[in-house]
Each structure stands twice: as C-alpha cells, then as structure tokens.
Amino acid sequence: MKKNKIIKGLGITLGVIAFIGVAGSIAMGGYVSDRILHQNEDNDTHDNSIKQLEVWGYDTEKFENTYEGIEVSATAEDGNTVPGTYYDNGSDKCVILVHGAGGDRVCMYPLAELYLEDGFDVISIDQRGCGENADDRVTFGINESLDVKAMVKFAREEIRAGKVIVHGQSMGGQTVAIYASNVTPGTAEAADAVICDSPVPGMELVLKEMFGDGDTDSFMAKYLTGTSKMFMKVANGIDYEDGDTINVVRNDNIPTMIIVSDRDEVCLPDQVEEIYDNIACENKAIYHADSAHIEGVIDDPDAYMNSVESFLNGAGI
After folding, report:
1. Which secondary-structure segment (H or E) carries 195?
2. Measured between alpha carbons, how far is 101 from 128 in angstroms, rounded to an integer?
3. Which helix (H) or strand (E) holds 86?
4. Which residue in 59, 178, 184, 254 has its CB near the most CB atoms, within 10 A?
5. Number of helices (H), then strands (E), in the chain
6. Is residue 225 pLDDT above 90, yes or no?
7. 233: which residues sit within 8 A by CB, 6+ positions away?
8. pTM of the predicted structure, to 2 decimals
C-alpha cells in the first residue's frame, strides 16, 4: 500500500513537472516569437538608415537635392499597404529596391543613385516592420514577399514599366529570393530579373546562429528556435520553412543574380553560394565582392554595377 502511494505521488510530481515544462516552453515560444516579429518595436529604422549612410560616408543630402521622389503605394494580396518612393527617370525599365533588417528605404540611396545614373526608373520600398509600412511584423521575407509582388504589379500596370527588376540587400535579398520562388514567370506580378545581394540564408538558420551566439547546435539555440517555431506556426500562421532561402530557391525560375560579400560575417559566403547553387533557373549569375556585408556597392560601385549590367544584358534587359 505504501509503495503504491509512493508511485502515485511520484507520478503526480512528474506530471506537474511535465506540465510546468510544457507550459513554460509555450510561454517562452510566445515571448520569443513576439520579439522576433516585433524586433523593430523600439527601433527608429529611418534614423538607423541615416546613421548607416553616415558611417559609409555617403552624402544623403546631395542625393535628396538631386533626385525628386514621388510617394507611391501598392496593396498586397493580404491587404497590407506597402509604401515606396518612385524616382521617374523617363525609362521603360524600373528597378524595385528592397532594404535589409533594421533600416528603411533611405538606406538604399547609394544603390538607387547608381541605377538612376544608369538610366533606370527606381522604386524603393519600406519592408514590413520598417519605415512607414503598415504592418509592424518582421517575417524574414515570408509576408514581405507579398509586398514585392504587389509593387512589381504596380510598376507594370500603373507606371507602365516594360521591364521590371527587383534588387534586395541582406534580409531584403532574402525577401526577393522568396518572392522570386513564389511567382510564375510571364505574369504581371513576376519581375523579369531579380538580384539578391548577401541574402539571409534562412529564417531558422539565422535565428539559431543568433540564439546560439554562432553555435547552431547549442541547446539554447535549438530550444529557443524550436519553441518559437512551433508557437509561430500555430499562433501566427508563419512557417520557418517558408523562410528557408537555401531551399525555397529550388522553385525560383526567374533570372537571378546572387552577390556574395567575401568578407561577410553576417551572411556567410558559403551559405550565400549554396543559395546560388540551388536556384532552379538556368539563367543565373554570381558575383563576388571583396567586401563586408552588403558593402560591395560602397567599396567598388563601378565593378558592382558592371556585374549587374552584364547580368541584366544576359537576361535581355
């Protein structure tokens, strides 16, 4: 009798411990998910862009005095409004620029200037959770790709662009890769070519690297990523697999250029090269910049744009 009581008591104790463990994991998953989605909640992304341009020594005031932008917007299929600035250069070719994490459309000025000097029209957009975008949630390109799709269609139907290119940097490059992997070539919402500069290789991978301080196999990296992954899929309808850049590009049939920053410590060169290797489209190109993360356009703009022009020419643009 006493033995049965001990066993029963032990079972109850273990059940309580298990319940606490499960409840705690759910709570942790919810907390981490919220922090991921609202990572820019207390972050002035516009100010971040200006500060980054200052670090690079870029003359922001000169750009704004030289090029007059027009505010435009498009509505994504989920109802989100994506804001952008349109620079009308009198061209029938339009480039849509997609910035990286923590900034807004302003940080794309250096790239916008190069395209404008090359004769292209330019639209620079704010990603979700950044700038003036209506959606405050960052989803590592998953939902952001819907905004790109909407703006490509806007460029074709509203400003009558004959050719549309989409060019993204870092998380913007990830957004562009996911976008290109989810549109059908030849449709109004499909670009004629896309360029991904130092794209984030995957949502889950980058989170594991962040949580594990570079060690993706650590317990903390696996635990925090695992709990948030389950919570976000159930509660928010966001699947980390949809943000796995390395794998999703197996469905990318748009002519695609990948730019690797060879001294990149954010999006590692071998991971970015793996993205290139997996792209389904045969019309693809890769360019190696001897630079840190997304700084090829700053360090050697002539070589950077020569590589871009060569790719676009090969794509019939």
Report:
1. strand 193-197
2. 10
3. strand 81-87
4. 178
5. 12, 8
6. no
7. 239, 240
8. 0.92
